[in-house]
Amino acid sequence: MATGKRVTAAVLLIGDEVLSGRTQDRNLNQIARFLAPLGINVMECRVVPDETDVIVDALNTLRAGHDYVFTTGGIGPTHDDITADAVAAAFGVGIDVRADALAIIEDWYAKTQTPVTESRKRMARIPDGASLIVNPVTGAPGFQTGNVFTLAGVPSIVAGMLNDIDHRLEGGAVTKSRSVKGDNLREGDVAEALGVLAKEFPEVSIGSYPYFLEVKAGEIKRGTHLVARATDTDQLDQVIERIAAMVEAVGITPRIDPVD
Amino acid sequence: MATGKRVTAAVLLIGDEVLSGRTQDRNLNQIARFLAPLGINVMECRVVPDETDVIVDALNTLRAGHDYVFTTGGIGPTHDDITADAVAAAFGVGIDVRADALAIIEDWYAKTQTPVTESRKRMARIPDGASLIVNPVTGAPGFQTGNVFTLAGVPSIVAGMLNDIDHRLEGGAVTKSRSVKGDNLREGDVAEALGVLAKEFPEVSIGSYPYFLEVKAGEIKRGTHLVARATDTDQLDQVIERIAAMVEAVGITPRIDPVD
C-alpha cells in the first residue's frame, strides 16, 4: 500500500534554442531528480517556443492538471525574454517593476559597478502577487505565482534557484526505485517473465531499458537495465529479487543497484 | 523574404524514464538537428509517461497541428512497450503481427541463433496501413503512419532509423543560423541595442544565451552567445554584422561563428 497522497508536477521548458537543437536541455532531468525525493512525480513536460500565446496556453493547461508547474527560460534582460509577461497573462494579473526585486538587482550590480540599464530593470518585472525565488548565481530572481515556479534557463542558475523552493512544496508518497543490470542481457530474454511479474505487482512500475555503449571504436557493450519503481519498499524488494532470479535463470549474473 | 513554405514538426517523447529523471533525453535534440537542414522546424515537444490514453491524446493533438510528428520510445518487446498500440488507437486502425515485419525480425535473430519468442514477435505488431522504417542497429523496425514516424527510444537506434526517413519528408524554407560569441559579455550590455535590431528585422529571430562554464574548480568563464536565425541569408548576414559591431562597441572582441 502506498502511504501518502499522489502529488504531480509538470515542467514547461520555454525557448526556441531547445526546439531548434541548438541547446541540449538538462533542466527537465535536473528538476525531476530534485522533486523525486520530495514525493513529487513529474508526469508531463512540454517544450514551447518564445511565443506568448503558446506559453500562456501551455501554462494554463499544465497548472490546471498538476499540483505544481516549473517553467524554465525567458526571464533575462533581452527582447526575447517574455516569460514573466506570459505568466502574468496566464494568471490574468498585472506585471510591473517591483521595488524588492529591483533592490536585489541594484545591489547585485553595484558589487561590480555595473549600471542597471533599462533592460536590466526588466528583470525586476514580477507578476502581481508573486513571491520571489532567490538566484544565488546571477542575482535576478525567479518567482512563484500560485502553483507555478518560474526559473531561469541556464542549468546552473536553475540549480541555485531550486535551493529556495523545497520549503514551499508539499510532497506525497516518495517513489523509490531499484534496478537490476544484466550485461549482454537482451530485453526479449526476460520479456515474458517480466510481463507476468508486472501483472502480479500492479502497484510497482517495471521498466526495461536496453543500453548500447561504444566502449571503443566499433566495440559495442550492450545489455539491459530492468528498473522497478514503487512507493512501497517491501513490494519493491520482492520485485527486485524476482527480477534478479529471472536474469540468473538465463545464465547472466544480475547486478543489483542500491535504492536510489 | 522567405522562400518556400513553412513546414513544422512536433516530437513526442514517450517514457516514464525520461520524466522520472532516470534517463537524460537526447532524442529531441537529435531529431531537431536532423530536421533543420531539411527545412522542417520543430515547434513543439511533449514528454509523456507510458500510459495509452495520455499518448493517444498527445499524438492526436500534435499530428493535427503539425506537418510531421516523431515519436520515440516504447516499441520494444516488453510489457511497458505500448506505443504501437497507442498509435493504432490514435489513428483508429487495427494492429497485428505483420508478415514483412516478422520476417525482418526472424532474419535478424537467426544470425545469432536467438529464438523469436512471443515477446520478440510483439515487435512485429504494426498498425494497419503503416510503412516500415529500417532499423539497422537492432533489427526490429519503426513505422510511419500518415504523418507520424514511430521510432525507438535508444538514441543510437533513433540515429539509425533517421537514415530511412529523409526521403519521405518534404521540407520548406531552410532556417539558417549564425552566431556571435562574446566572452565576458553580459546580456544586459547589449540588450537595448539588440531589442532595437530585432524590431528592425522582424523576419530574423534573434536570441541571447548567457553561458557559465566551470573551466576548473571554482573558476567560471562566462559570456553570451547571440544567435540569429532566418531563412533569408542576406538579412541574416546584415543582422550578424550589426550584432558584431554592438559587441565591439562595449569593448569586447566578437567571435563570429560560421553559418550552421
Automatic annotation (TrEMBL), chains A, B:
Matching entries from SMART domains are given as: MoCF_biosynth
Q: What Pfam families does the annotation carry?
A: FLAD1_M, MoCF_biosynth
Chain ranges of the MoaB/Mog domain: 10-172
- Domain of life of the source: Bacteria
User: Gene3D superfamilies of this UniProt entry?
Assistant: MoaB/Mog-like domain
Cleavable signal peptide: none
Which InterPro entries does the UniProt record give?
Answer: CinA, FLAD1_M, MoaB/Mog-like_dom_sf, MoaB/Mog_dom
Which CDD domains does this entry report, sorted A to Z?
Answer: cinA
- Listed name of the protein: Molybdopterin binding domain
What species was this sequence derived from?
Answer: Maricaulis maris (strain MCS10)
